[in-house]
């Protein structure tokens, strides 16, 4: 289970252009190049959010205690989550997301209830500063939301510009057909 951003474009002007292209070219133009370009831009934009520690709305992520203690950036320990962001474009839609199982708690926030942690592969757990224990009681915690998927105002502008460029190319092809 991962986190996914779904983007749907439903513009009347775009529909008119597609219908005109279908009439002139005998087929609908392919949206896949446009949607692939949008997907690639959104993956790049999401990667920048990990570097800046900001949500799509521009707000700063709450710093994690572990990141502060280890002198690193929040949500970047191994880079697995950041590097897993990908897109899938078809002729009708584009999805941007990740399949990393711990993405949703970071994207949306989560409450981890109190529970007991038991040793699974060894006879005991080694706890720094305490020693060895067969089990420990975890008191529970709250993971604050640190949204990394979503559209910023800048993303919306990029998508608008990519769509206009795509429409210009289709229009030019129609004018030369």
Short account of what is shown:
The protein has 177 residues and is α+β, with helices and mostly antiparallel strands. The chain has helices at residues 12-25, 32-52, 65-70, 80-83, 103-108, 153-175; strands at 3-7, 86-89, 94-98, 110-112, 115-118, 125-127, 131-133, 135-138, 141-143.
Order of helices and strands: EHHHHEEHEEEEEEH
Query: Helices and strands: which structural class?
Result: alpha+beta
Count of helical stretches: 6
State the total count of DSSP E strands. 9
Poorly predicted runs are: none
Provide the spatial order of strands within the biggest beta sheet: 1-3-2
Using only CA atoms, what is the Rg? 23 Å
Apparent shape: elongated
User: In this structure, how is the largest beta sheet organized?
Assistant: 3 strands, antiparallel
Mean pLDDT: 88
Proportion in β-strands? 15-25%
| Helical fraction | 40-55%
Gap from first CA to last CA = 46 Å
Q: How would you describe what is shown here?
A:
By secondary structure, this protein is of the alpha+beta class. Helices cover 42% and strands 19% of the residues. The protein is elongated, with a radius of gyration of 23 Å. The N and C termini lie far apart (46 Å).
Keywords:
19% strand; 177 residues; alpha+beta; three-stranded antiparallel β-sheet; 6 helices
Topology:
Elements: E1 3-7, H1 12-25, H2 32-52, H3 65-70, H4 80-83, E2 86-89, E3 94-98, H5 103-108, E4 110-112, E5 115-118, E6 125-127, E7 131-133, E8 135-138, E9 141-143, H6 153-175
Antiparallel strand pairs: 1-3, 2-3, 4-9, 5-8, 6-7
């Amino acid at each position: 289970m991962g986190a996914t951003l779904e983007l749907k474009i439903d513009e009347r002007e775009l529909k008119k252009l597609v219908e005109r292209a279908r009439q002139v070219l005998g087929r609908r133009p392919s949206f896949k190049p446009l949607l692939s370009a949008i997907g690639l831009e959104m993956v790049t934009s999401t990667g920048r959010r990990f570097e800046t520690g900001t949500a799509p709305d521009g707000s700063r992520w709450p710093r994690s205690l572990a990141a502060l203690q280890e002198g690193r950036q929040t949500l970047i320990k191994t880079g697995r989550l950041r590097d897993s962001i990908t897109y899938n474009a078809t002729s009708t839609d584009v999805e941007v997301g990740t399949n990393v199982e711990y993405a949703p708690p970071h994207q949306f926030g989560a409450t981890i209830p109190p529970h007991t942690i038991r040793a699974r592969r060894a006879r005991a757990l080694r706890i720094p500063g305490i020693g060895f224990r067969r089990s420990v009681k975890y008191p529970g915690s709250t993971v604050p939301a640190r949204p990394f998927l979503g559209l910023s105002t800048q993303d919306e502008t990029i998508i608008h510009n990519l769509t206009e460029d795509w429409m210009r190319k289709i229009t030019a092809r129609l004018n030369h057909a």
